[in-house]
Amino acid sequence: MRQLIIGFRRAAAATTTASAAGVFVLPGQQQTRLVSRTIASSAAAYIKSSTTCSIARTATLAQGVNMLDPRKTFTEDFFFRQLFDEQSHTYSYLLADVTTKEAILIDPVLEQAKRDAQLIKELGFTLKYAFNTHMHADHITGTGYLKQLVPGTVSVISQSSGAKADKHLVDNETVKFGRHVLKAMSTPGHTNGCMTFVVEEQGIAFTGDTLLIRGCGRTDFQEGDSRTLYRSVHNRIFTLPENFRLFPAHDYKGNMETTVAEEKRYNPRLTKDVEAFVELMNNLNLPYPKMIDKAVPANRECGLYDIPKEA
Questions:
Q1: CATH number, position 113
Q2: In terms of residue numbers, what domain contains 151?
Q3: Residue 64: what pLDDT?
Q4: Fewer CB near the terminus (10 Å): N or C of the chain?
Q5: In the prediction, which pLDDT does 245 show?
Q6: Is residue 307, in this structure, part of any structural domain at all?
Q7: Does residue 257 lie in a domain region?
Q8: Is residue 293 a part of any domain in this protein?
Q9: Beta-bridge mates of residue 186
Q10: What pLDDT, in 10s, does the model give residues 243-281?
């Protein structure tokens, strides 16, 4: 950004100097167009200035990444709502076909199941599937409770997760809600069963804990493996179109979304080479997860354990 600002200043200074020296004085509109073209050239040079290396040596640092690529606009028949649980800093996502009213919910939280069920009822949707991106260790999924609150809901998780569910997904399997299609991509590393859910037509992906905003999930428990996570991000998520919007399962700093382009350029962990990434992940020295001893057994049952008695 500093380079971009310097480019702007130089463009303005060059115009002022030339005018003062009597070299030329353009009419207002022409002068504005000249400065605008100079600024655009400086911006383009800045955007394309980073270095790219092969994945064997380092992360793809996004040479030619266009941070200004327009995002896709949601189609008129696509509904999207981002929901939040303050206690676990978990994002849940409600998606629906506005025409057929079929809906899906990604990463529901037990304590928010009543809220989610009420919202779905108020909007007139039918909850078809309740997905989990992986077997969480920091909260109990709301899937089991939602199956009671919204009869007919089908629980969904990766076949590799080790968790029970009505439906198990394998890599590249697709699921439909109304006319919309969600594709499940296997992105292990945080856990064996981690999946990223992609809705290609809308230009969005739900990355779970595999890729967070300017971060990633930890790899020091529950089958975690740093090299596997690195490959998952670079080979699966970073190969999506750069203007795809990415929505994680958690954020602890108030960020709500990111893009493929942003993470390829600015993620402080995953822009490192693989060896540096592994070393960093091996030395995070994070505390033992507070909820893991309760959450993992419950989520292995896909949330059917410890459901509130009033259900």
A1: 3.60.15.10
A2: 78-284
A3: 60
A4: N
A5: 98
A6: no
A7: yes
A8: no
A9: 195
A10: 999 999 999 999 999 999 999 999 999 999 999 999 999
